[in-house]
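Hi U.,

Before I forget, here's the chain from the pilot set. I'm dumping it here mostly so it's searchable later in email.
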Amino acid sequence: MLPSSSLQAIVVLAFCAAAVQAGFRHPPDCEGLTCQDQAVMRYNGTCYCQSNPCSGHACNDNKYPHLEFEYSQTGVLTCFCTKECPQGLCAGERKPPECVEGGHHCPNKAQPVLHLDDGVCKCKSHPCVVAGRAACDEPSLPMLDYSYDEAGKLDCFCRKHPCPHFTCTETPNTPVVAWDQEGHCHCEAEEHDEL
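Structure:
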């Protein structure tokens, strides 16, 4: 039970509808809890809600209704609105809308993360691979994800399968389910290490 002195209400979800937790992963010790008003769930021995650093930012376009934020490696905050947040997967580096709209993608597993560098869409290595923390060996948590905190510290973690009911059985030339940095699934020709 959370202390009644919490400044913001926390709602316990009795079903599997994942709340959008932008910018950071949902603390494992706070499973089943969520915050109201786009606050961010934190854990320091107790689950609590912290104001969203982008609380002054509004998402008024129905095509991009979800408020997200991320910190860069240098701790710079970016607030943005996104179309979707699959299964609450709002951490890590999102694909820049400019790159997505331009049809860019990163099919090479050596450089699977799409990002915008000085106005140019580029593919880069997964930061957890670069940091030597790339193993998601638990079958129930196969997706490697990451985020940075306000100090620029990298947090690597494994997530549940982003689309467990997605199949590639109808595409014999591409029979393997794979996913991108945002958890969007697609079919590929041969099995390889996932993000």
